[in-house]
Structure formats: structure tokens, C-alpha cells
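Exercise 7. Predict the joint structure of the components listed below.
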Amino acid sequence: MVIDPKQLEELRQARRQWEATTLRGSLEQQPERAPRFSTLSDMEIARLYAPDDLPAYDPARDLGLPGEYPFTRGIHPTMYRGRLWTMRQFAGFGSPEDSNRRFHYLLEHGQTGLSVAFDMPTLMGYDSDHARAQGEVGREGVAVDTLEDMEILFRGLPLDRITTSMTINAPANVLLAMYLVAAERAGYRRDQLGGTTQTDMLKEFIAQKEWIVPPRPSMRLIQDMLAFGTRELPRWNTISISGYHIREAGATAVQELAFTLADGIAYVQAGLDAGLAVDQFAPRLSFFFDCHNDLFEEIAKFRAARRLWARIMRERFRAESPRSWWLRFHTQTAGVSLTAQQPQNNIVRVTLQALAAVLGGTQSLHTNSMDETYALPTEEAVMIALRTQQIIAYESGATNTVDPLGGSYFVEALTNRVEAEAEAYIRKIDDLGGMVRAVELGYPQREIADASYRYQQQLERREKIVVGINEFAGPHAQPIQILRIDPHVERRQVERLQRVRKERDSRQARRALDALQRAGERGENTMDRVVDCVRASATVGEICDVFRTVYGEYKEPAII
Amino acid sequence: MTNGKIRIIIAKPGLDGHDRGAKVVARALRDAGFEVIYTGLHQTPEMIASAAIQEDADAVGLSILSGAHMTLLPRLMDLLRQKRGGEIVVFAGGIIPEEDISALKSSGVSEIFPPGTSLDVIVRWVREHVNPRGVKT
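Solution:
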């Protein structure tokens, strides 16, 4: 707190006095419940935080003011007093028609942005009639094979007034091209389209594990998208650098933050290597974090994230535009924290997590539904999740002031600590040669697997408690209703795909695919060629097969 | 000391990449003294069945969170029977709704561990239900 040495000594003296008298007496009467208290990620937490815990803390340097460097308090001067976060429920299941209906339903009930989940075959770049797609079509998201599916998916939606986030990575270039062509046919210009493609392949190799080609060519295709997006799509976030999946795979809060920012560093470097100027593309990079149960650890993580990224962008990459320094982020509550046992309790967990995201200054938020340990959510469950956000926004008072916890000794000390530990990881990754190399070496993968196993052992020993699992278990609540995917979705999707293949001009499709292959082989930017393929009704699988041919397929070394 | 001889394959059928559970269970079984082989991700039933036969596995543990279990697990059971791997004990975990459990069990899956199952329960179950093949008790 920039305390002068005399005052600091007095504070420390007072603390020692308190420990010897008041505290000691109290502990003799009532010992503490445990010898050690720690966060969910097992960071040890002290009994009390006071000014003398922040001796070197300089509010002008470390906290600053909202909307100003280093943005610890938020990227906007008024935060939620000016505009609430975007309420963006991730949705997508079954056929494009099913998902289109769900999108209309969510927008009618006050949701303010779309977020599309694609099914596993689409995420892996396989068509719905591929042998490996059997049983998976439309299960974990919506099936999209061709431009026609994309047009159905967004039918009747005001694409100039909403923003659309697409959770798509390995074939992100293909789905972005489909969105652009579908929007163009519906009468929208490219500069009217706002949204995000996730396009974060590094976290796929680290955690989410849906890939097509190996890490280095994946980075190459991302460079093509960055250059194309910078040129063509002023309102589009080409990459959403994602910690969510890293955390869900078992990382600690610090690992989530560190690996995500290290991925971000690799993408900024990729943009620079593609010849772009940092302030041209960095403002269109956005982030995506998980929000778990430990309220303060999460708030500290978000605050540290903003400060660290601002410093990285300004000091490491010499960005000059304040918008390049901004860490804008979407948050999703922690799917992994939901329990199948006593599922209604999940509503409470999600509420706490959503509150932490808001207190941490998120720009947009997805709240999980209570039934997601069983299946994709029902409409009723999604409604409770959306209402949870609305209650926080309009009833809790959390939105009345900027960064309500700024200045809390505990939150500031924890923010400093999360930042310092994340920086140490980032240095380690720099030493390994950067994140692409670290991924090839399996370093983050191993760190996460270790952390996840440690946490599971803490649960087994009941050092960490999950209500309804290792404490307060049973009686089993009434089973809840879950969403069943129509078993005919797969057959109908395959029929439509095969009809499109039959009806299109197959020579035109072939020519477009060949031109894409040549562009890939010559190392030219592939994005315009992908758009041509989409226009010619080439399928997701056919386009991704070109990439498989040019760059080969990734095979993960299995690490346990 | 039959533990050392029991060989278990942990596999991820289908396209989903959620391997946290598979890896945690693989480690726990290894720490409990079993020999564990993890196949890695994105395995077809054919790949898993071949691995089980080639590795002479006593048990196969499957982790699946994609909702494709009703397609992939019965097919694996058929393949194991065809390849004369019928005595291999198969168990599974992941996002599997309760109403699918009895159908999976009648296709030959011995046990389904729902989300939230403790590692101890899985390890004890394997100790009690898996024997080195040919020494069935």
C-alpha cells in the first residue's frame, strides 16, 4: 500500500500483539477447523489479510483506474453501469432446424448474443456420413456439413444486430467461410457481421483434443485467418483464446491463466510473423475463461489476467493502441463442477460462479444448466440458467459499481499471487521455446494431468468437499427430465448431405477443392479459396480432407 | 499377488476429446498395481477390440462423454465376441444417462460408473471382478 517503513513496523507490531493475545485466547477456546486452508486449486490462504500483507503494493501502478492501463479494475470506465455483459448461452444440438428454433427461443427470452455448439464430427472435420461419425451426429452440438445447413441454422436471425460466437477450432476457417457466404446470401455485408470463431488450436492440443492437422500447420491456417479477418471483417474476433477447456481438463486456476496467455503470446507472434502490425490485429483477439467454485480465486484470476495481458502487450509486443492492451473475455461457469447427484444443487453452484465472473469483470457470460452432467440441457433448465444471470444483473446490486472488490486486502494479495505464479509458468514456457514447442513436448498436457490427479486424490481423502458427492450424499433426488436427441437426426442429416452432393455442380466443387490444395501446397493464404469451396457447396469433410492431404493428420502421443 | 498380472486397457471410444476421467482412472488403476495401457483418443470400436486382443487384456475400461455410447459400446461388445475376446471384462464411465444403463448391461458391459464415482470404488470393483484370463474364479 506504499506504506512508509515506520507505519509498516507499527502495523506488524500490532499484528504480533493481536496474535499473542486476542487470537491466542480464541484458538485455545476454539481451534480452527483444519490445520491448513486452501483454494480449490490448493493455494494456501492465510487467516487474515491486512495492509501489511501488501507492503510493495502501489495502487497507482497495480490497480490504476478502470478503462486505463493496466486495467486491473476493468477495461471500461463505467463497466456494468454503462452496459451489462452479453448474456450468451451456448446452444446447438440435433439438426440445423432444431438449433435454429432454440436460437429464436433464446433471443425471444432476452438473450443478447448467440453461441453455437457444433457436433463432434463437425469439430473433427468429418461429414455426417463418415464412418467415424456414426452415433455422434447432432449429439453434442449441431451437425453442419454444407452451406445449406448453415443457411438453415441462421434462418430469420438478424445477423447485423446480434453477434454470433462459434465454438469451432480445427475447421474454423470452413465454418467462418460458411457463415460469411450464408450471411451474404441473406443480404448482409461482411463489415456488418460481428462475432467470434474460437480458432484456438493450441488449447485443442493441450486440452479439448479435437484436431485435424499437426500443431505447426494448424498455426499456419490460423495465420491465414488472422490476415483475412484483419482485411475483411472489422467486427469479427478471429481467435478466442480459451482457458475454459484447459481448466475443465483439470488445470488449476493459475495453470488456466498461464497457459491461456502463453497461447495468446504464440498467436500474437504468429500474426507478426504473417506480416501484420500488432495494433492491426491484437484488438480483435478475445479470451474465454472458466469460472469455478472458489469465488475469490476466480475473481483474482480475472483481475490478474487483465493486468498481465496489458503488460505483455505493451512491454513484450510494444503495442501502442490501448485496445491492443485490453483483455476482453467471455466466461462460462465450470461444467466440471456440476454433479449428477442432487442436480438441483447445480443451480446454486452456477449462481456463485456467475457472480464471480461478474465481480471479475466479464464481457459476456454463459451459465451452465443444472442437467448438463446427463445431457445437453432442456429448454426449462436453460431458462433457469439465463434467469440466474438476469437476477445477478438486475437484483443483486453487483453491477452498481466498478470492480466492487478492488482494494480488499485479500483480493489484492490473491491477485498479486495469481499473477506472479502465472508469470513463472509463462517464463518456463518461453524457456522451452514457446507454446507450440511446449505442446509438442507434452509439457502443459502433463502439468494438467498431474493437477487433475492431485485434485481427485484430495477428493478421495476428503481434503476437498463436494456436496452430494463425498459429503452430504444421498438421498437421491427425483430424477430430472433430460433432453433426448431425436434418433432420426443422423439419418435425415445424411440424406440432406447426399442430396446436396448430388445436386451441386460437382465439377465446380472439384475445381474449388483443387485450387485450395494448390494454395496450401504453395503456402499461399488459403482463406479465399476456402470461401470458394463453400460457395461451390463443398462439404466440411471434403475441405478438411484437402488439409489432411496437404499437411497430414495429427496423432497425439498418449500421456497418462 | 495376481494384481501384477491383470492387464487393463483404458480407451476413449468415439470423437470426444474429454480425457480427464480416462487419465485419472488409468493412473489410479496403475497406482493400485494393475498393468494399464491407455489407447489415447478417438478410438473406433474396431481399434479398441483389436488392441484388447493383441494386448491380451483382461479388462477394458471405456470413458465416453459424447452421447454416442448406445452406438459404440454395443458394437464393441459384438466385435469382442466375434474376435473371441468374450471373457474380457468391460466397464465404462462418463456421461451415460441412467435409462441407458440396463441396455448397455444387456449388451455385455459389466458395470457403468456414473459421474462422481470415487476412484476407490472403481479400483475395488476391478479387484473383485477382473481376474487374469484363463484363471477365472
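Discussion. The longest strand of chain B covers residues 59-64.
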